[in-house]
Give the backbone structure.
Amino acid sequence: MLTDSHCHLASHRFQVEEVSDLIERSRAAGVARLVTLATSLGDLAANLAIAGNPNVHACIGIHPCDVHHAPDDAVVRLSAFTSDPRVCAIGETGLDYYHPAPEGWVETSFRERQRGFLRRHFELAGTAGLNVVIHTRDQTGHASFDDALEIYQEFHASVRAVFHCFIGPWENARRVLDLGGLVSFGGVATFKSASAVRETAGRCPPGSFMVETDAPYLAPEPYRGKRNEPAFVRDTAEFLASLRGESFESLALHTGETAAAFFRFRSPAN
């Protein structure tokens, strides 16, 4: 059961009236489930509304690039929605050291706020019995990954985390898996320049990773540079299956089962 484990259907790059067509095109491509992620309190309602569609589910969280806009009690406000059957995880949360601190902030205080929000997301997930979707990004090195993994280590006994759009080396993926977490691969894995990602994807055992689009961002080959959409997760899955020497059907099945176990889909439609 092929699953797009990470997309943003409420993105401003998708018109509200075209979302049903996006979902239908994904179904035609063999994508059985979609997970759409909120990144702020502002797009929470829109994502939950989209998750009213059959086989579409929502995650709720504050993206690290949005923590300066979010009120201090933003994560507390999310707690009101954790029992909603459309909600399948907490996120997208994490640490982003790629973008500079916004106006009025210094780098140290902005990163500290991100780390505080990430820790509160984990606390909420533990209370709600949900898992966490993590974003990390750096200009160079992997400081955001190291910091996020350190926070994850505090909670790994009770909460699982997936490091989405994973582009790191196998050594970093192994550190996630050793804590009981997952990684997820998107369109970057299909890029000719992404040899390290491909090595990682080839070494991850079944049950340790998922596939995603991160739509509307990071479209896979042959759509690179265009707006991404959930149907394109099939292209990434076919590429990874060939890379790993397994059939598309096999990869779709075990990544779909991994997604089902991680998200514990609760929608009455399923």
The longest strand covers residues 87-96. The chain has one domain: 2-242+249-263. Residues 13 and 196 are 30 Å apart (CA to CA). The chain has a mean pLDDT of 97.
